[in-house]
Fold:
Amino acid sequence: MRVNGKYAILSLVALVLGFLISFSYQLTNKQSGTIVEGKQWQREYELREKLIRLEETTKRLQQELVEKQQSIREIEAELANQEKSFKTLLEDVEKLRMFAGEVKVKGPGVEVTLSDASYVKAVDNANNYIVHEGHVHKVINELLTAGAKAIAINGQRLVQNSYIACIGPVISVDGHEHSAPFIISAIGDPEVLYSALTILHGVRDQLVMENIEVKIEKKNELIFEPYFGVTED
Structure:
C-alpha cells in the first residue's frame, strides 16, 4: 500500500506538470500569434499610409502637369499669333514695296490695249474717237480693284503717286509722254482680272461705247523692273 500510494502521488504530480506544460505552450503560442498579428497589422497600416501619400503626390503632379501643358498651349498660341502677325506684316511690306515700285515683279496677268477709233465720222469731233486719260484711269482703277499687284503703261511702271495727264494727242505718265495705242499691263490672277474687265456693262463695254478700241489678253508671264523715278527722255 505504501508503494502504490507513492506511485499515485507521482502520477498526480506528472499529470499536473503535463497540464501546466500544455497550458504554458498554448499560452505562449497564443501570445506569439498575437504579436505576429500586431506586427502584420502595423506593416499593413504603414503600407496604406505610403500608398495614400503616393496617391496624393500623383494627383498633385498630375495637376501640375495639366497646368504646365495649359501654359505651353498658351505660349504656343501666342507664338503662332506673333508668327502670323509677323508674316502678315512682311506680306504687307512686300505689297507696299511692289506698289512703290521698289522691287522687280514677275508673274501672270493681263494686257489691255486701248487704241483710237479706226473710223471717225466726218461730222463728229475727232476728240470723241481718241483715248484720253479718263479711259486709262477706268482700266487702271478696275485692275486695282480686282487685285492687280503691279501695273505698267507702255512698259512704264506705275507707283502709288503716279499721275496721268492728257496732253493733246498723247498721254503723260509721270512726265513721260506716250502715244496711242496704250498698252496697260497688270500682274495678278489672269482669270480674275480678265473677268473684272469683261463683265457685262463693265469697263470694256463702257470704253467701246465711247468709241475706243479695246483688246484684252491673258498673259502667262509679265515682268516689271523696279521704278527708279522720273528721268529725262
